[in-house]
Amino acid sequence: MSTRQLLIETAEKIFTDHTDKQALDAAEAGQFPEALWRILEANGLHEMALPNSGIALADVFAVFKVAGRFAVPLPLPELILGNRWRGASDGFVSVGLFQDPDAVAVPWGRRADRVLAVSAEGLRELKADTVIAGTNIAGEPRDRVSGSELQLLNSEEDPLALLALARVLQMAGGLERTLELSLRYATEREQFGRPIAGFQAIQHNLAIMAAETAAAIRSADAAADALNNADPYRLPLEIAAAKARVGEACGVVAEVAHQVHGAMGFTYEHELHHVTRRLWAWRDEFGGESYWQQRLGSALAAAGGDALWSFIASRD
Amino acid sequence: MLRFEPTSLPENTEPLRQEVRDFLSREGAHLQSRNSDFTTGHDPAFSAKLGAKGWIGMTWPEAVGGGECSFFERYVVTEELLAAGAPVAAHWIADRQSGPLLLRFGTQAQKQQYLPGITRGESYFSIGMSEPNSGSDLASVRTTARREGDGWLINGTKLWSTDAHRNHYMVALVRTEAPSDNRHAGLSQILVDLRNDSAQIRPIKNMAGGEDFNEVVFEDVLVPADRVVGEPGNGWQQVTSELAYERSGPERFLSAFRVLVEFVRAAGKRPSPTEAALIGRATAHLLALRRMSISVAGMLQAGQSPDVEAALVKALGNDFEKLLPEMARLAAPDALAAPDALASSGALAVPDPVTSDDRWQTFRATFADTLLLSPSFTIRGGTREILRGVIARGLGLR
Which ipTM did the prediction report? Predict the structure, then answer.
């Protein structure tokens, strides 16, 4: 079994046991998922991107897709990448955006032992003094952390791009889950004496979802593979393309999924919204479609119209 | 769940790609570059040059003039031609559809007679499927062929046969037996010599001003017996067997590509945020579509039948081809403010050299061309609605 497959199966096993509807509800109610965090630690998942882990970064990102599928109520990418950039794994680390002088939108900042803040200049580590709790529209904790700057971390990587790529993989997993839930519901729910999947209007909507989901997954996988095979010029542009394309798919897929689910999917009791609200939130985190479209488009325009096709026609 | 496995083009495609680019830059005069639609630009001289390069019938056996290349190599050549706006219409259907059909189902004599001319870029084919009352419901065709002495006597009307007035042959789907409970039975495909048989060919002007497609009327047209492709009665299997091949290629998402190229050229090195966003958004779509399309090429190369995946690529690609001009016009509101190319003599007007200081001029002409062609994108080769039905079946919904 490949390393990637092993990681995926380990993650699936843990998430299946620890991220059911009750766990998601509890996390949204503000209860930190201690048990899940302990198990991740015990299995060493939080250390898998440490510089000496021996695991390819693309394999690590494959786990983020699994986390997205399960809507895991922990900031797995921030934890794993934060440890990577700190070169250590002592305690619960989270990563937000640097908004001078604070770190904002920090997942579970209220619980974090260490907080990193990303900006164009790089990464800062903050010593937390005060925390103002907040959430994104999925009810995931996104806190403002104020404190003194401990140090500026050196990283040869582009932390913002890598965090955006993490969201890309999470969204891909969430889209897959949303499509699965919708297909299942449409074949189970009966109206006019037959499953609604039998109606052409529903079939076409599900076909649209399937197409958007397939495009998103292919984009996400390509950007993750670019960690292995792209040069330093191309990597952030592949990530930009993926964040833009996958983010666009989220809007379409979430909308159709709720239409297919009818009023049932609008209830808090149903599991669908735990995924769709995350899709809505994640597409805007670490740069929304507009930001990444502009970043990609500016680079391509600078290269000129005659170079555009060469960029698109890559081998991988 | 539909899977599009990551698929890399083999290394040997890189020198080939460069060779095509070198060829195209030398052939600059042949490139129309106004749009990248595979149905525009019927240029026998250019097709013959491609044939001489070995770039038609690339995957076919050497015995019939082919190059015994992989699907990936063919993919690289076709996408380079389309991206450059090269005039590929003359040989396109023969290379993509009719040749592979004859190769798979034709008799030995048919392969020897028709395929070498196709690979030389000298023999061109049209499709004879649709009829006045048969579009998406292809099995309902009414054109008949009945035995008459040593030959077949054809009666009926074929419609939307692109370039039948310029090409050499049509592969016509006809009913050779009376309709029965199995509506897919009793159909055959027959090769029609468009220049020597007595079919009447009438070009139909399209809304973009072009005269590419035709009505082809058969009134007691007698053709020799050896014109039936393979075995009589095998027509339905023949027309449905190559759908993955016909629906997943780069022509299904590149029809509007020149709009983007001209947009980037006009926007310049320092585009506005809105312009940059359009370029980024469109490129993100193209990267995804191309990778899905190449994934299907990989499945074909591996001998699979990815009909559903191909339908999905076409559905998504065609929607993108329509979306691109719409996105572009909104991102560049000034581009269309000067209406000269649109208003003077219709949308196919050649850009007016008098106003050539206007940086958006070429974009405007390409935009107009593409927008006027765009209704055909989601109709030809399987409508969006048919494709969504195919996808739904693949999802297990019907």
Answer: 0.97
